Structure formats: C-alpha cells, structure tokens
C-alpha cells in the first residue's frame, strides 16, 4: 500500500506544478490608443499628467505680460533658453518631456525666439568648431554669432504622498519660472498640481 502511495504523490505533485506554471504564463495583447485616451495603470506619473500640467503652465505663461513688456522695451521678440526641470519627486521622471513641450509651445506662438538649450549647446559649439577645420571656407559658419538669450526657463517636479490601508493620495506639484538673465528678475512663475486617489485591491486565493 505504501508503495502505491508514493507514485500517486509524485503524480499529483507534477500535476499541481504544471497547473501552477500554466496559470502563471502570461500572454501579451497590444492595443493602439487614440490621442487623449486616459489610462491609469499604476497611479504613477504618466502622459496624461504631463498633458495636464504642461498645457496649464504654458497657457499661464503666454497669458502673462512678460512678452509684451519686453517687446515694448526692446522692439523685438524675447529670446528664451530652456534650462533644467529638476526632478525632486519620489519617482523617476523624465522631466525633459515637460521642457520640450514648453519649448514647442513658445516657438509656435512666433512671439518668442528660442536658442539651443543648455543640454545640447555643447554639441552645436563642437560642430561649429569642427567646421572651421574641415568645412570649406565658403560654407563654414562664422564664430561669435550666437544669439544671446534674454530669459531662462527652469522648474521642478515635487510629490507628496499620503498613504493608509491600501489607499493613497499622490499629489504632483510642477512649477516653472522665467528669469531675466541680465537682472535675475523673475518675470513669470507658475505652478500646476495633479492629485490622484489610488486604491489597491488585494485578492485572496
């Protein structure tokens, strides 16, 4: 009798293992999402949050008086350089997306001129110097012709999390400001926040 129990035990063990393995196997399904379709999976920072904060901050910046005041004073468009959008949150965030959205919006108004941002300026300067050596004299660009920026755009992302018993409220604060490079005067400051209630449901087997 004991001799029969062992083979049955092994067979049941194998069946259970196979069942567990097959139940854990995942299939991948891909669906193309339409622009503007809102999907939150983890409750973390996502593309919808980026769209909310950037559109609000850009609207605030463009409706402010700093552009008109500068044009009345100088007779030309203000020149802006994009600085750093710092990530001071508790998550890993790609803040360059926020900076690039700002840059595109300002350029598209045709009321603001943009120069290469700090992160890419060295590449432009290296190319300019290379042309002095390797390009023909007639096609090489001139040195000392950079357009100086009048204003620096910078900002930061911060988070506050309140959590208890499987529920949390996560708030993202995104701030941005434009600084007059010559005087260090802040000509515009804006902030937008996104609050998310996240509920984690636990399933018991």
Task: Describe the structure in your own words.
- With 205 residues, the protein is of the alpha/beta class.
- It has one domain (43-199): Rossmann fold, CATH 3.40.50.
- The chain is built from 5 helices and 5 strands, in the order αααβαβαβββ.
- It has helices at residues 2-24, 47-63, 66-74, 96-108, 118-134; strands at residues 79-87, 113-114, 151-164, 167-180, 186-199.
- The protein has a 5-stranded mixed β-sheet, covered by helices on one side.
- α2 (47-63) packs across α4 (96-108).
- The longest helix is centred in the first third of the chain and has 23 residues, at 2-24.
- It is elongated and about 90 Å long.
- It starts with a helix and ends in a 6-residue tail after the last strand.
- The mean pLDDT is 86.
List the helices and strands and how they pair.
Blueprint: H1 2-24, H2 47-63, H3 66-74, E1 79-87, H4 96-108, E2 113-114, H5 118-134, E3 151-164, E4 167-180, E5 186-199
Parallel strand pairs: 1-2, 1-3
Antiparallel strand pairs: 3-4, 4-5
Helix pairs in contact: 2-4
Notable characteristics:
single chain; 205 residues; alpha/beta; Rossmann fold; five-stranded mixed beta sheet; 5 helices; 39% helix; elongated
Please tell me the overall pLDDT: 86
Q: Which fold does the CATH topology refer to?
A: Rossmann fold
Q: What CATH architecture would you give?
A: 3-Layer(aba) Sandwich
> For the largest beta sheet, what order do the strands appear in spatially?
2-1-3-4-5
Largest sheet: 5 strands, mixed
Unreliable sequence segments:
none
Please write the string of helix (H) and strand (E) elements.
HHHEHEHEEE
Q: Radius of gyration in whole Å, from Cα?
A: 28 Å
Specify the number of helices. 5
> How many domain modules?
1
What is the oligomer described by this structure?
single chain
As a percent range, the share of strand residues is: 25-35%
Number of strands: 5
Assign an overall shape: elongated
Q: N-to-C terminal Cα separation, in Å?
A: 34 Å
Query: Pairing-aware structural class of the strands and helices?
Result: alpha/beta
Instruction: Give helix % range.
Output: 25-40%
**What is the CATH domain class?**
Alpha Beta
């Amino acid at each position: 009798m004991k001799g029969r129990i062992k083979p049955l035990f092994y067979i049941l063990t194998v069946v259970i293992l196979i069942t567990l393995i097959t139940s854990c196997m995942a299939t991948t399904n891909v669906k193309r999402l339409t622009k503007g379709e809102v999907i939150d999976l983890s409750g973390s920072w996502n593309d919808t949050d980026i769209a909310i904060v950037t559109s609000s901050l850009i609207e605030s910046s463009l409706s402010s008086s700093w552009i008109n005041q500068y044009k009345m004073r100088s007779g030309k468009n203000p020149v802006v350089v994009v600085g750093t959008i710092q990530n001071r949150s508790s998550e890993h965030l790609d803040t360059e997306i926020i900076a690039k959205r700002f840059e595109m919006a300002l350029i598209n108004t045709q009321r603001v001129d943009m120069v290469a941002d700090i992160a890419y300026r060295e590449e432009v300067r290296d190319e300019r110097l290379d042309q002095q050596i390797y390009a023909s004299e007639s096609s090489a660009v001139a040195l000392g012709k950079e357009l100086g920026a009048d204003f620096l755009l910078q900002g930061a992302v911060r988070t506050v999390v309140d959590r208890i018993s499987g529920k949390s409220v996560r708030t993202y604060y995104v701030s941005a400001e434009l600084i007059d490079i010559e005087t260090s005067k802040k000509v515009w400051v804006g902030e937008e926040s996104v609050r998310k209630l996240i509920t984690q449901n636990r399933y018991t087997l």
